[in-house]
Fold this protein.
Amino acid sequence: MDSKEKTIELIEQALETVRPYLHADGGDVKLVELTDDLTVKLELQGSCQSCPMSAMTFRAGLEESIRKAVPYINKVVSSNVPELA
């Protein structure tokens, strides 16, 4: 397993810790890409796409969990919520 695969595994594990909360509100999150410059691209799914709280959920929940698990990530962006790109 190379370092990129290991990083993706760590990101997925971090997302798993947040998923139950997203599922409870009818939403989910998908890891779209880990770029070579260590940018994580996520896609909010279900009700999370249009929820007015999605920006807060993204920053305080998803980004925070990923940064704790993988502190060397440069940034976390959304592929489908414009204000989070």
The CA atoms of residues 53 and 59 lie 10 Å apart. Helices lie at 3-24, 54-69. The two ends are 29 Å apart (CA to CA).
